[in-house]
Structures are given as C-alpha cells and as structure tokens.
Amino acid sequence: MSPFTCVLGSGHAVPPRILTNAELEQMVDTSEEWIIERCGIRQRHIAAPGSALSDLATQAAQQALSAAEVAAADIDMIIVATVTGDMKFPAMACLIQEKLQADNAAAFDVSAACSGFLYSLHLADSLMRTSGYRHILVIAAEMLSSMVNWQDRNTCVLFGDGAGAVVLGRSDGSNGLLSTYVKSDGRHHKLLFNPGGSQHPPSHETIDNQLATINMAGREVFRHAVVSMTDALNAALEQAGLTSADIDLLIPHQANIRIIEGIGKRCKIPADKVYVNVDRYGNTSAASVPIALNEAWRGGRISSGDIVALVTFGAGLTWSACIIRF
Ligand code: UT7
User: Fold this and answer.
1) Residue 102 shares a structural domain with residue 128
2) In total, how many domains does the chain have?
3) Among the four residues 35, 61, 236, 244, which has the most C-beta atoms within 10 Å?
4) Is 156 a catalytic site residue?
C-alpha cells in the first residue's frame, strides 16, 4: 500500500460582501496607495454581521466533498483550523459536522492562527498513517472581521474572511503529502495576539479598552514571517528529499505581497511559480492557503505529478510547511 496521504478534493467559500480600500479610506487615516504599495491588497471579503462562519465553512467542505466524490457519511474525522469559531465552545467542527450530516466522524478544532491549516494537515497525515481512518476532512475558516479593531489602521486594512477545505484519503500511488513541518516560538506571542479570553472575560471595560481585538507589532511580525517561512520551507523540502528547484508551485500564506516576494527571493523560486491572491482576499488567516490551493487547482495551475509547496506563518508565533505531489 502507498505510504502517502493524498488530497482527494478541495473547496473554498468567501462571503459576497467586498470591502474596498476606498471604503477603508472613509473609516481610518489610510490611503488606497499605501495599502496597495505596502501590502498588495486591493479588496477583501467581509461576512455580514450576525452570519455564521460555520455556514461558510460548510459550503467550502461540501465543495471539497463533491470534488473528492466522498459522501459526508464516509468522513471519519473533521478537523477545523480556526481562531474565530461561531462560539467559544463547542468546537466549530461539531457545528459543521451537524450541517454536513457527517454522522460517523469525530470532530474538533485546532488553534494555531494563520498556521492552523498546515498544523491540521500535519495532524491528519499522522492520524491517517497510524489509525484505520479512510477519509479526514480538514477545514480552515476565519472571520477575523469579528475581532478587528476598525479604528486601528495598522491592522484593519489587512484582514478578510473566508474558508477553505480539503478531503484527505489514502493514496494508491506516489502522489500525496511527502512531508509536513510544524514549529512555534511562544516567546514572541505578544507580537500578534487578541487578549480577549478567560483572563479578560467580556465586560464593559474589556470592550471600552479594545481587549477583545487584534494587536500586532507589524514590522517585527514581518521580519519573523520571512525568516520562519523560509526555514519551514527548507525543512519540509529536506524531509521530502527535494530542493526548491523541484517546486512547480509555491502557495505561501497570503498576508502581504512583500512577504511573499521576500520568500520567493530567499528560496530562489521565480515569481511565475508563486501563487498570489492577497490582492483579492487580504489575509484570511488559516483559510488563506486552502483558498489559494483550491483556486490554483481548479484554475489549472496544478497538474498531475506537480510538486506543490505550502508554507504559513502566524500568531504564536507558529510556522509550518507541507510538500505535496499531486
Ligand atoms: O498573518 C499573520 C502575520 N501577519 C503578517 O504577516 C503581517 C506582517 N506585517 C506587515 O505586513 C506589515 O508590517 C504591515 C503591512 C502591517 C505594515 O507595513 P510596514 O511597512 O511594516 O509599516 P510600519 O508598521 O513600519 O509603519 C510605517 C508607517 C507608520 O507611520 P510612521 O510612524 O512612519 O509615520 C505607520 O503608522 O506607516 C503607517 N501606517 C499606515 N499608513 C497608512 C500603518 N498602517 C497604515 C495604514 N495606512 N493603514
């Protein structure tokens, strides 16, 4: 039997409402030029107030199941990467399980911020190898618009909402996940965090003091992002016995075009082999890589046999990479 876990199908969904840079100009002291030049973002999709992220995630999952030709009843496990689930508990994975009627699965969430999707793939791959599971549904979904401080120009221009999903199964050949790599460094957790939690439960004071919104030291995070994603990519490549010259398509976390270009340069991967959609979605946190993967696959950017490298970075700090042969 092939030793590999493979991606059988993928899907993604974003809310219909588009928030433009011109609209942000009306909300904070920023400019269209600054956002495009410093971040490469032209627009982002934002969920309607009161809407459920689990609905968006379910749409992405249904698309992935349909592409994989796997019935919801045949899913053994649902792993959802998110830091913005519908509720504090239960896990959003359980809400999605109900919506999908995936009654034979076990379901739980993973909290690793922007790296959550690749952390989940790492976990799912290990479980596929060591358990009798046949299909694992991995979803990454975020509604960061729900925890953005809309008066803070340092962060509110960056983020968007969305969901991506993949169905994993057992490969019957040489295609599949060749390697996964995960790493974190909690010493830097104060560079990017949302303090709203059990230490600061909801109160008038926490709302007034913006204690339930995103705080980020952008410049420092930027520096760590380029170095860490380069390290993760090199580690995953080495584990797979490959070099960056073998990569047909690099799908990096979509946080900032300058970070994406920095990684391409450091890893010597030409721009035409690097997937970019940050201009259309902004930073959708954990959902960013699976949204891009689904777009690239459905858009014909990935062919059978291609080596695709995924790499992410986020709060924690966390970083991760995965090499897949399609
Ligand atoms: O997904 C998880 C990881 N997150 C990231 O990867 C984000 C990483 N960081 C970044 O992408 C960038 O650091 C930012 C886009 C957040 C900021 O870009 P930067 O080039 O690092 O800007 P900066 O923070 O060094 O700020 C430069 C200037 C400052 O003004 P002064 O102090 O030089 O007068 C900021 O106040 O730009 C100002 N600024 C803005 N100006 C217009 C910050 N945000 C804005 C804005 N519009 N929205």
Assistant:
1) yes
2) 2
3) 61
4) no
